[in-house]
């Protein structure tokens, strides 16, 4: 995570491919929390809200 702050805008494309286990979710949450209010973060998903 040390080199991530240098990136102005990070893109997580199609978040549905992130496995829904505790470790993967924790890493994703850490990324979002670390970038919050500092740099841009774009997250996309092809999943509908119902899924």
From TrEMBL:
Residues 6-51 form the IstB-like ATP-binding domain. InterPro entries: IstB_ATP-bd, P-loop_NTPase. This is IstB-like ATP-binding domain-containing protein. It comes from Shewanella psychropiezotolerans.
């Amino acid at each position: 995570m040390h080199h991530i702050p240098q990136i102005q805008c990070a893109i997580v494309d199609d978040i549905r491919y992130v496995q829904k286990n505790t470790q993967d979710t924790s890493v994703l949450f850490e990324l979002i929390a670390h970038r919050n209010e500092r740099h841009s973060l774009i997250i996309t998903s092809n999943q509908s809200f119902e899924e």
